[in-house]
Structure to design on (164 residues):
């Protein structure tokens, strides 16, 4: 049975993951306006992954006899200062999500909730990957600088991202 504190914190994380999905869909829509369809496709895939993260937690709450209570999802940012700014914002957001996952692990430790602790291992690993890939695309776009040809090729590569 889930401790009430853990249940509340997991519900909050469901909200954060769905917000992440919403944020990345908003970022995808922004890249459509820049005619960067590969970037847009990349963040549409990311948006679906975030929804899947929320559903993993949703399932865990039910498996442990808890109750899922959905809250309102905040409006995400809709404009960025350019292609690079959007990628940097995504990296910052992933760092924020990592901190949130680490707090959940701390809470699971404090409550001696071993099953949630084990469940969260997947998220800890996932955040390493999420931060790494978010930073990798920032670094690549910084290397490209003002080169339109390279941006064209990078956009094409971004569009090749497949769902996990
Ligand atoms: Fe759910 O990992 Fe990104 O936010």
């Amino acid at each position: 049975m889930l401790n009430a504190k853990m249940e509340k914190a997991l519900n909050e994380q469901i909200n954060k993951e769905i917000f992440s999905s919403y944020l990345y869909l908003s970022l995808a829509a922004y890249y459509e306006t820049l005619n960067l369809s590969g970037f847009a496709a990349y963040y549409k895939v990311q948006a679906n992954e975030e929804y899947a993260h929320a559903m993993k937690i949703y399932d865990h709450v039910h498996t442990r006899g808890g109750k899922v209570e959905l809250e309102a999802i905040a409006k995400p940012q809709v404009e960025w200062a350019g292609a690079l700014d959007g990628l940097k914002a995504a990296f910052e957001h992933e760092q924020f999500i990592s901190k949130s996952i680490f707090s959940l692990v701390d809470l699971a430790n404090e409550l001696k909730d071993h099953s949630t602790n084990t469940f969260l291992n997947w998220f800890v690993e996932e955040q390493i990957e999420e931060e790494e890939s978010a930073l990798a695309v920032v670094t690549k776009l910084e290397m490209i600088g003002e080169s339109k040809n390279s941006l064209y090729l990078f956009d094409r590569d971004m569009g090749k991202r497949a769902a996990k």
About this structure: The domain at 4-158 is CATH 1.20.1260.10 (Ferritin).
